[in-house]
Please model this.
Amino acid sequence: MIRILLVDDQPLIRSGFRALLDLEEDMEVVAEASDGEEGVALARKHLPDIALIDIQMPVVDGIEATRRIAADPALAQVHVVILTNYGLDEYVFEGLRAGAAGFLVKDIVPDDLLHAVRVAARGDALLAPSITRKLIDRYVSEPLTTGTPKELEELTGREREAVALAARGLSNDEIADRMVISPMTAKTHINRAMTKLHARDRAQLVVLAYESGLVTPRT
Model:
C-alpha cells in the first residue's frame, strides 16, 4: 500500500486529489495539511511513502517543507513530489535541490498522476527525459560550484558515465543502449552512484552532476 500525504492550502485541490487516490487499491491518503509546517509535522507522525506538496503556501512554503523533510533522517523513506500550477517555473530547480524527487503540474490528467505516484514510490525520479532536458536548458546555464567533490572522485569511470547520461535526461534503457550494457547494469551504476554521492534519488543525482561540473549544459 502506498501511503500518501497531501499538503496544499487549497481544500478543493486536496479533496480532488484524495478522491482520485483513495479509489486505487494500492494507495491510501493518510493525512492532509494546509501549509508546509503542518505538512512536516504530519510527515513525522504518519511516515508516508509519498508527500505531494504545493510550492506556494502560507506559513512554510513547499520548498522549505521539502528541505526539512529531506534533512530529517527519520523521514528518509518519504519521497517528496512538488505540485505547481505553472510547470517549469522558477521554483522547480530550487525544489529539486531541496530534496524533491520530482514535480507535477496540478492540471495533470488522472492516469498520469496515478502513474507518477507509483513511480515516486519505487524511488525513481519524476523527471521524464523531455522534462529533464527542458529543466536543464532553462535553469542551468553553468556549473553552480567549482571543483570536484571528494565523493565524485569515488565513482568508477562507468558510474561517472552513467551519471552524466542520466543528467542529460536519458532513461536507464537509453543509458544501457549508449553504454552497451543491460538496463539492469545501468540501474546498478546509477544506484551505486546515488549511494556514494549521498543522493536521495535520481533527481538529486541530476542536480549534483550539474553542480559539481561533471556535466555542463548545452555541450
